[in-house]
Specification:
Chains A, B: GO terms for molecular function: [pyruvate dehydrogenase (acetyl-transferring)]-phosphatase activity. The structure is a homodimer of 470-residue chains. Chain A has 470 residues and is an alpha+beta fold. In chain A, 21% of the residues lie in helices and 20% in strands.
């Protein structure tokens, strides 16, 4: 099965002719620069281009629709049935029609082995136009000036406990990013450093001058330089948070069930921003070298963050859990004996005398794929999960989950790329059974080369590990 | 001045003949294996070898004495006066007598440029014998068996706001480490994995068997493997905490004023453990390659940890500080405008509307050497500082400081070393004016080579950056 997915993806990436040369004017709107029209379209229709979502924040979401797959797959009702067939387990990739995804994007997915009724993953590939909200200088914008910005966007959403969160994220997260970037349209195109302070209303003078500052301490009189890049990172971080808050607000009315890991890529003004919240993974293959563009957030990798939170806010443990970690569950008969443990400050282990409260359930337990927070969830970052509770309890798990991504930046202008170079995004199902090197060696190997090539994205969304074993 | 220190250190490291070959039996006690005698000696005497400190935990500390320098400098009263002379600023290194420090350890220090009355830094170099506390198996120990363990120890303590904490740490931290290792003497010498559980009393059966575990969740029925190495790491981590707690207990009676960064190295059973709490730095130079063995903990590198704590425990901010970071101090006239900020979750920056509480002092401010927590302290990990308060306030700063080190492990048995290889420990004063590469290139270059050599340590403790500028 793995080979089937590999072949499908390799075919997609390599068969479409030349890999795209770097967009000459990434800040120029393309087809998505159509003037704003009103609210987002129904989910079964092709997704509204983000640029057509209008200037209003993405604060509403249409009524929950039936199960769907990424729109770029262009599945007919029959195709959707086949994609959803656990027995057949067809590999899905976009049709080989004239209409290709940007940057020769490849995609492959397969239904899971039966752990959930539907494939709960989603994916998204968009070109998004950002119209400036207003002139930050307060002056009326000149119509002749290039006002907008355009970004390329790819998203992979690994859903769990329902497909609602992944579906909502695939439709709306890029709009939240667009909203966050609206304030920055002029700033990002201005070679000067970003102003530290903006006027509250257009026309009012901004204050980016610190000469009037008098502080008793030298640390207060200094002024940090903030880069354009860090503004984009901040915009993406806040977009994730706003997406998560929207899911919390609308979960009841719209059945936003479950949660999802989110791995998204934004290409803007020459730089690739890879934002990861969850256990998906992104790599760039450049001239045969593998550059990790994300790290996984799991109960193991985030143990100390989780334990610290449980330690500082013991009420979140509800008297049912202990923030301490033991190498296995403590048994009542071991009271008074000394067992290995580690707390939020430790990376090593030491012995401690077992007391009554050490018999509580461990906040973090298990190893590898079996590691869990509160014996329930195996990822510690993502979107949604607002209704997630500990089994047989009302204790919410969400406080321990973070919706914030780690964002890594890759400056495309700093490197030479060859036609085989590729950016690969995969959910854990891919990486559980395939190493970075294997993914690389099974990638495309044809297509014209030469300077100016950029790594074409390659998305794989096998929902479950078993999905690749056949 | 820098060259004077460099020369002194290079001389020390290179002049003593052959670099030490790896100790053949690092677990055999050497001269320090003398039978325990009673409490620690007075601080102006040569420090009691740790092995002679007796089996009692290091829970008491002798009365505060007058200012001193590391005992291995063997300073006469006249030498001590010269070492403490801000005008002369003599470089101090151990006398070139027949009695050399273990592993051809080199050392150099210079008094600061006048920021404090005395040099508040301290250093320590010891060979410590650990006698097992008891047989963990419960069986009486066979007298013929090698019962003890020996570790080599180097410590560098960068004091601030008084020399008491650094002095106390230099005399006692290795004893705390020894105490923590006492339970592990047999376990570390046993090739079997460490038992997960120890009996509460010798003779009682231990429980390291999980076959009786029945859990509803698979994560609860698993059992983690704990390595010997992670036990040593845990022992060092807990020793730092116990040292800090001892300082808190005894600060009133013994004038343990100030705080200190602590950078210590433990060599035990073939591995080098480098534990760092503060902004000192350790590197290993191996065949010309530089291997970083620590990272610095400052308000900048620990910004998110500090902000998270302020966010989760706002009472620690006393209504005086905000956990948000702004690129500079917010001014009252900017109320209602939008300024760049970042919170505990963000690495990027975004704009927010300035509200009244944003006018509070920032928890973290400044950049580089000027970065401060609560406008007061420029390091975020270390020992002591229990009395440290915000200037003109009763607000304690200690809750934001961590006494826990990050421990990195270097397996000496995995690498070949040449005679120029060296482990360098330096306080920030060294690294502020000297890059890793410069330190390397000014190191020793003579002495017989050959396999089996180990990196000899090299300690430099210039108290202040200015101390190197002359």
């Amino acid at each position: 099965m793995l080979n089937r997915v590999r072949s499908a993806v390799a075919h997609l990436v390599s068969s479409g002719g030349a890999p795209p040369s770097r967009p000459k004017s990434p800040d120029l709107p393309n087809a998505t620069s159509a003037p704003p029209v009103a609210p987002p379209q129904a989910p079964r229709s092709p997704p509204a281009r983000a640029g057509s979502g209008g200037a209003a924040p993405a604060r509403t979401v249409e009524a929950r629709a039936s199960f769907s797959r990424p729109t770029f797959l262009q599945l007919s009702p029959g195709g959707l049935r086949r994609a959803d067939d656990h027995a057949g387990r067809a590999v899905q990739s976009p049709p080989d029609t004239g209409r290709r995804l940007p940057w020769s994007t490849g995609y492959a997915e397969v239904i899971n082995a039966g752990k959930s009724r539907h494939n709960e993953d989603q994916a998204c590939c968009e070109v998004v136009y950002v119209e400036g909200r207003r002139s930050v200088s307060g002056a009326p914008r000149e119509p002749s000036r290039g006002q907008g910005l355009c970004f390329y966007y790819w998203g992979l959403f690994d859903g769990h406990a329902g497909g609602g969160a992944a579906e909502m994220a695939s439709r709306l997260l890029h709009r939240h990013i667009r909203e966050q970037l609206k304030d920055l349209v002029e700033i990002l195109q201005d070679p000067l450093p970003p102003p530290l302070c903006l006027p509250s209303t257009p026309g009012a003078p901004g204050s980016s001058d610190s000469s009037q500052l008098v502080g008793p301490q030298s640390c207060w009189s200094s002024q940090k330089e903030v880069t354009h890049e860090s503004l984009v990172v901040g915009a993406i971080e806040n977009a994730f948070q706003l997406m998560d808050e929207q899911m919390a607000r609308e979960r009841r009315g719209h059945q936003v069930e479950g949660g999802c890991c989110a791995l998204v890529v934004v290409y803007l003004l020459g730089k690739v921003y890879v934002a990861n919240a969850g256990d998906s993974r992104a790599i760039i293959v450049r001239n045969g070298e593998i550059i990790p563009m994300s790290r996984e957030f799991t109960p193991e990798t985030e143990r100390q963050r989780l334990q610290l939170l449980g330690f500082l806010k013991p009420e979140l443990l509800g008297g049912e859990f202990t923030h301490l970690e033991f190498p296995r569950r403590v048994q009542p008969k071991e009271l008074g004996q000394r067992m290995l443990y580690r707390d939020q400050n430790m990376t090593g282990w030491a012995y401690k005398k077992i007391e009554l409260e050490d018999l509580r359930f461990p906040l973090v337990c298990g190893e590898g794929k079996k590691a869990r927070v509160m014996a329930t969830i195996g990822v510690t970052r993502g979107l949604g999960d607002h209704n997630l509770r500990v089994c047989s309890s009302t204790l919410p798990i969400k406080p321990f989950l973070s919706c914030f991504p780690e964002v890594r930046v890759y400056d495309l202008t700093q490197y030479e790329h060859c036609p085989d170079d590729v950016l690969v995004l995969g959910t854990d199902g891919l990486w559980d059974v395939t190493s970075d090197c294997e993914v690389h060696s099974s990638g495309p190997s044809s297509g014209p080369g030469g300077p100016g090539h950029t790594p074409g994205p390659w998305l794989a969304s096998p929902q479950q590990q078993a999905g690749f074993r056949g």
